[in-house]
Amino acid sequence: MALHVVNEARRCLNCKVPQCRKGCPINTPIPDMIQLFLQNQLEAAGEMLFLNNPLSIVCSLVCDHEKQCEGHCVLGRKGMPVHISSIENYISDAYLDRLSPVLPASSGKRAAIIGSGPAGITIAVLLTQKGHDVTIFESRERIGGVLRYGIPAFRLPKTILDRYKTQLLKMGIHIRPNTSIGGALTVDDLQRDGYQAIFIGTGVWRPKKLGIPGESLGHVHFAIDYLVDPDVYDLGEHLAVIGAGNSAMDVARTALRKGTKKVSVLCRGPKAAASQREVDYAVADGVEFLYGARTESIDRDGVWFKQAEFDQDGNICRLSEPMLFHADGVIIAVSQGPKNKIVSTTSGLQTTEHGLLFTDVHGNTTRPGIFASGDVVLGARTVVEAVKYSKEVAQVMDEYLSSIQD
């Protein structure tokens, strides 16, 4: 692994106008990272990555690199791009346990972070680096949110999140597991107890349904529920996954690893919505794909659908009569939305027509002192998008806290 990383780093042209950096949503200083690494300054490279993106090691594993940094590498125009993700992962992984941030004196200001997913972790780290007293409230027993309970371990080892917890505690961040805000404790309770700024990063955990007959049957499940704990599900020998995004790929590959003999992904369109890399991995694992499957209903024997044919522009030119796709189990993977526990117990929070929290461009909700970002605002998005937006919100929260007179 180390030799591969070094060889890839040596291939970097150190472009004066690095297209790889332009392709990164969070503007990672990729050429600088690589040059520091080649100069045997691994710790400096790791520190630079962490300061730019506290979830650098996570993004190195789960980002859609072929559309971002690696997809913009000039070497990829006539050959293979530099495998930037491997270099970033090697550096970030080596640096994470060495992290020893020098924190400023306490500001005396207190902030609450509701949810410990990508947005919550990012905000917690950045506010702590500004000297604020931060507490994370996590409804489950372990931190990570969608990183732990929505991404399979073969894509993101859970030990990474355990290592993050160690570093968060070292930074002085308080963590309250098994604490759901909107239950015994409310946002009003947090403000009563001196949290002057509150961040909501609870993600999207309510599955979206298809609205077809059969979704309540005993052998039918939702992707976001399944991925939380696959071991408790009995899917039978043949599984049909309805959906074509990255979550559908995660479900399909997980099911095969958990003993399901055959997994088929039913896609509505002429191609999958997931990244090509995830589709390629799914095919390599043995997942089968049925394109143009327009699901009509589900019964005990499987999924009823109409087979669509498409013209060269991707428009449907023909639909078959309904036919049955035989399956023992069915998992619906067509995105998810937010739960309303916090909104229903907190006055003054406005939501969109889709149930997402309404904020301005700076992450301010409609209630002063309460901020939000990540999937609960934008809908299901990527980790790096959550980090990018959360960096901006953290700056606004710091300015808000700093403006409060003692």
Rg is 23 Å
Helix content: 25-40%
Give the biggest beta sheet: 5 strands, parallel
| Net shape | globular
What structural class do the secondary elements suggest?
alpha/beta
Given as residue ranges, the uncertain stretches (5+ residues, pLDDT < 50) are none
Mean pLDDT: 92
Amount of beta strand: 15-25%
Distance between the termini: 52 Å
Number of strands: 16
Kindly report the spatial arrangement of strands forming the biggest sheet.
3-2-1-4-16
Number of helices: 17
Question: Can you tell me about this structure?
Answer:
With 406 residues, this protein is α/β, with parallel strands linked by helices. Helix content is 37%, strand content 17%. It contains 17 helices and 16 strands. The strands form 4 sheets. Strands 3-2-1-4-16 form a 5-stranded parallel sheet. A hairpin with a 5-residue loop joins strand 11 and strand 12. The longest helix is centred in the C-terminal third of the chain and has 21 residues, at 383-403. It is globular, with a radius of gyration of 23 Å. It starts with a helix and ends with a helix. The model has no long low-confidence stretch (mean pLDDT 92).
Topology summary:
Layout lengths: L1 H10 L7 H5 L6 H9 L3 H11 L3 H7 L6 H4 L11 H13 L13 E5 L3 H11 L4 E5 L8 H4 L8 H13 L3 E3 L10 H6 L4 E4 L5 E2 L12 E3 H6 L9 E5 L3 H12 L4 E6 L8 H10 L2 E4 L1 E7 L2 E9 L5 E4 L3 E4 L2 E4 L3 E2 L3 H4 L25 E3 L2 H4 L4 H21 L3
Parallel strand pairs: 1-2, 1-4, 2-3, 4-16, 6-14, 7-8, 7-14, 8-9
Antiparallel strand pairs: 5-15, 10-11, 11-12, 11-13
Brief sketch in words of this structure:
The protein has 17 helices and 16 strands. The chain is α/β, with parallel strands linked by helices and 406 residues long.
